[in-house]
Each structure stands twice: as C-alpha cells, then as structure tokens.
Amino acid sequence: AQSVTQLGSHVSVSEGALVLLRCNYSSSVPPYLFWYVQYPNQGLQLLLKYTTGATLVKGINGFEAEFKKSETSFHLTKPSAHMSDAAEYFCAVSDGSGGSQGNLIFGKGTKLSVKP
Amino acid sequence: DAGITQSPRHKVTETGTPVTLRCHQTENHRYMYWYRQDPGHGLRLIHYSYGVKDTDKGEVSDGYSVSRSKTEDFLLTLESATSSQTSVYFCAISPNSGSTDTQYFGPGTRLTVL
Hints:
The complex is a heterodimer of chains A (about 120) and B (about 110).
Chain A: E1 3-7, E2 10-14, E3 19-26, E4 32-38, E5 44-50, E6 56-58, E7 64-68, E8 73-78, E9 87-94, E10 105-106, E11 110-115
Chain B: E1 4-7, E2 10-13, E3 19-25, E4 31-38, E5 42-51, E6 54-57, E7 64-70, E8 73-78, E9 87-94, E10 104-105, E11 109-113
Parallel strand pairs in B: 2-11
Antiparallel strand pairs in B: 1-3, 3-8, 4-5, 4-9, 5-6, 7-8, 9-10, 9-11
C-alpha cells in the first residue's frame, strides 16, 4: 500500500525567497507522484507529476520537483516565491495501476504563506 | 478549465435526512471521483466510477452511495446524514485512470450537517 507524508502543515516564506515543500512517500512498487495546488475556495489543480523517465520534473508557475528514489522523496521547490503562490499544496502517490489499488493517496497538505 | 460543475455549492441539512450531491461534466471523461476534504486529513476518496454503471468504493465509503447512469453525471448520496459527514466534497474527472493521469477537480460543495 502507498502512503505519503508532507512535512510541515504550514510553511511561511518571504516574497522572493526559496520555496521548499517536503514530501516523502512509501510504495512497494515504482510510484507515480503528483503535486496539486488548491487556491482558497477552489478545487485542486495539477502542478506537476512524475511517472517515469527524467527525475526532475518541471511544472506550472515555475515549480519543479525531483524524484529521489534513495530518499523516497518528491520535494517541491520554486526559486523565488510570489505573493500569488499562497495556497495549499498536496502531494499524492499511486502505484500506477488501474482499479482501487491504483487510486491516488493524498498527503494532508501544506499551507504556504508568502510575506511581502 | 475542465467543464465540471457541482451542485449545490452549499447545503445545510439536519441529521438523519438524505442528501444528494451532483457532479456534472462536459468533457466526456471516463473516470469520475468523489472526495471529501477535512482539516488535517487532506483529501480522501469516497467512491469512484470507471464508466456508466461501473463504480467502486474508496477509502471512506461507509455511509455513502453513488450512481452513474450517464457519462456526464455522478451522484453522491448520503442516505441518512450524520454530523461526521460535515465536510467539503469535491468531484474530480479524468480521461484515464487518475492514478496515472491528471485529475480535474470541481469547485466543491460545502455540506453542513446539524
């Protein structure tokens, strides 16, 4: 079974500073990994995903994440935070198979605040 | 934006009453999902559908039922609402299994059970 842990329920950074949101996963098979973002009072939208291939994945709005198998991590980064990045971020994992076993398991979320 | 609507957007009801939430899509995607979002729990899958009349349970299906009689509509029913079902409910759709493909989320329904 898959599981995902997001370290830190709240992260606060200054505008222009590095954003680092941490995600560690547990999976018995090669994982599929996702980051979703939720802006206030909205549904989630995909930032980026890792399925196979290149371990450094680039997403929308300048975000990227690196799959590190040895560390079972998929941390999300952005070099320079913008006020518009304030949102809640969810890491998710699946085993890539169909059926209920392949459904996404979401982390509990990390709320990012950006200070002017 | 993916064409997903949820209705109602807000609902207040009383314990013991039946409630039905509707998800409607215009994308003709095969997969549809119902999640609930609660503080400190992230999103948890309630039920999902992989085609018309084809549904399966998720992680937190107790107390919920679903139906999908048309590709575009996925209904979530609380047969007898309880206060523990107070939550924000999200519908999502995906052209292929959401475990490998992007899921597109609706705007959510905020349900309060008194």
